[in-house]
Specification:
single chain, mainly beta, about 50 residues
């Protein structure tokens, strides 16, 4: 696995979630969490009938 990882991190700022991409190492990750290596990913925008 790569030494540096691209990660999308969600943090709590003033009671509101804020997400951003950052670079981490395995040492930055907390113990006992699940680490998932993703090779490819997509994001689908699904509009409802009410959207213009």
């Amino acid at each position: 696995m790569a030494e540096n990882l691209k990660a999308y991190v969600i943090e709590d700022l003033d009671g509101k979630p804020k997400g951003s991409f950052t670079t981490l190492t395995l040492a930055d990750l907390p113990d006992n969490d699940v680490l998932v290596e993703v090779a490819y990913s997509t994001l689908s925008l699904h509009r409802s009938a009410r959207d213009p």
